Amino acid sequence: MAESLAFHQRHLITMEGLSRDEIEAILAVARSFRELNERDIKKSPSLRGRTVINLFFENSTRTRSSFEIAGKRLSADVINISASGSSTTKGETLLDTAANLQAMVPDVVVVRHAQGGACEFLTRHLECSIVNAGDGRHEHPTQALLDLLTMHDHIGDWADKTIAIVGDVTHSRVARSNLIALKTLGAHTRVVAPPTLLPRDVQNYGCEVHYDLERGIAGADVVMVLRLQRERMQGSFIPSINEYFNMYGINRDRLHRMAPGALVMHPGPINRGVELASDAADGPESLVLEQVKNGVAVRMAVLHLLGQGTGI
Ligand code: NCD
Questions:
Q1: How many angstroms does the Cα of residue 42 sit away from the middle of ligand 1?
Q2: Beta carbon of 63 within 6 Å of any ligand 1 atom
Q3: pLDDT single digits (tens) 110-137
Q4: Which CATH number belongs to the domain containing residue 39 in this structure?
Q5: Is the CA virtual torsion 37, 41, 45, 47 positive or negative?
Q6: 255 CB less than 6 Å from ligand 1?
Q7: Residue 312 within a domain
Q8: Which residues constitute the domain of residue 209?
């Protein structure tokens, strides 16, 4: 397949260092798989005889099931391991777990871990391809890729587009991967949050920084809303949930008033009434379920390209 010739990575850990051509190659392959996913028989022989292990040390609904469906649609043998059922709860180190899995000769290991850097660490100790399915607050590259596919369907060329990312940027691996990728693609990005929820080095991502919601989302083509990652917060980052919603929460009325025509995205899980009101989450501007649908196609593309798939 011509598009995949542009993709030369062995692992997918970060959006950093992926060229525009490589991102577009993945999205092109994902579009082909999206067509396959519309058929009655959603099956490609691409990864027949290959083994994909989903190793999840953190909770997940969407991402884990999305990778599982993706692997199965490519005819791979897919094994799911989650932390609660794994030997980590018996005291095994990540390295021992990984070495034992390597002994079973998988082709791709998809990893979600609470510690940033865990996936990169595994690339140095395993022989197979590693896909980062979210490592701490570091990165979540397949989420960024599915977000890019979804946005591109609606807004087209990136050059003159503005994406406003609203919410808990500090703890968000989704924001980080998106900011890196959108910079590579040449879109304008803004982050909108109280100072306590913005990392100190946020300017390095080439984005505008806003503390005021109205100014932050004015004229945006897309408003990407982030969950308050309370499980990663130690101490108090906001005065109260109510106050947070009053200042930064997105509902349809605000959207129409502050950013007319803007589309709404959210990686899920949504905390309704905390960062996003139901009328905006479920309204005609919402791309939330399209994101989930595109997630399967993007993960098929990534597994196909890394697992040396043989044609769609
Ligand atoms: C995100 C994650 O886990 O980082 N969710 C996801 O993968 N769909 C975002 C979040 O948990 O808020």
A1: 26
A2: yes
A3: 999 999 999 999 999 999 999 999 999 9
A4: 3.40.50.1370
A5: positive
A6: no
A7: no
A8: 143-287
